[in-house]
TrEMBL record:
It comes from Mesobacillus selenatarsenatis (strain DSM 18680 / JCM 14380 / FERM P-15431 / SF-1). Gene3D superfamilies: Homeodomain-like. Pfam families: HTH_18. This is Transcriptional regulator, AraC family. SUPFAM superfamilies: Homeodomain-like. It comes from the Bacteria. The keyword Cell membrane does not apply. Transmembrane segments: none annotated. Keywords: DNA-binding, Transcription, Transcription regulation. Residues 1-94 form the HTH araC/xylS-type domain.
Amino acid sequence: MKKNIEEEITSEKLAELAGYSLYHFTRVFKDVTGVSPRHFLSALRIEAGKEKLIGPSYGSILKTLLDIGFKSFGTFSSKFKQFVGQSPKQFQNSAVKLHRFMNDYDEVNLEIPVSVKSPAVRCTPEVPVFFKGIIFVELFPRPIPDQELP
């Protein structure tokens, strides 16, 4: 799916490639990922769209949606808002603001608060030695976040 994101990918084609019936493929896929193949593909496309919208050579929203396999602006926009919680343009604008804000903290060492109220989750991301930056971690109620923000 990732390698051919701009192609028309159907569950039928995926099942055929896997050598399963559509029903069996869909069931196994959902058991493994927690979501249907269509939902997973939409999430991949939205993630690719986010990267293109804020990447170094970002272009128009129309070019972005065509590059990631969407055929209609309306579908892309509504799916984007469903998965991200804001329109593609709002996301693009807020990403620019966030980038500027984060640049202010380029050399700041942020400490993790020691006292955390229960229930809590603690994690330690493992990153390459050369990694420099801030990592944001968030928990979602579903395997792929796709709910509008409150």
